[in-house]
Predict the structure.
Amino acid sequence: MRNRAILSIIWTCLVLVSCDSSQVFDEYRSISDEWNKDEIIEFDVTPPDSINPYNLFVNIRNTNDYKYNNLFLIVEMNYPNGKVLADTLEYRMTTPEGEFLGTGFTDVKENKLWYKGQQDPFIFNEAGVYKVKIQHAMRANGDVDGIENLEGIIDVGLRIERPQIKN
């Protein structure tokens, strides 16, 4: 009986700690061995409303096999009524000393990278399903064609949160 009570307390604590009230959407797609430059990662998002602002993030999980200090992405948002916005984004992945940024205790680091909402509030102003497409745009110095297969990226995610209320 005592073991059951202890397990119940531990379970309750885990549930409370893992709850994230700001999360609206959080999904990942795994990358097989390498991320091919033509492989587009897609997410279908149905926002909860068309009034409130949201913060959008691209989440990247990388290993020590990632050979670069930055990451270039092309992120395209397809609105329900046909409008398309494409952004080329650059993210820093390491410190100047070459240590990976992000969180994690093993050789896998998770990076939460701003996509929309950091400077101006982002509002899903059309009702319906939005499609977000993410593709890498990495190039070696002096190379026009780009890197065919990017090593070290194992998961690509999209996260949407309600903004934190500032007091």
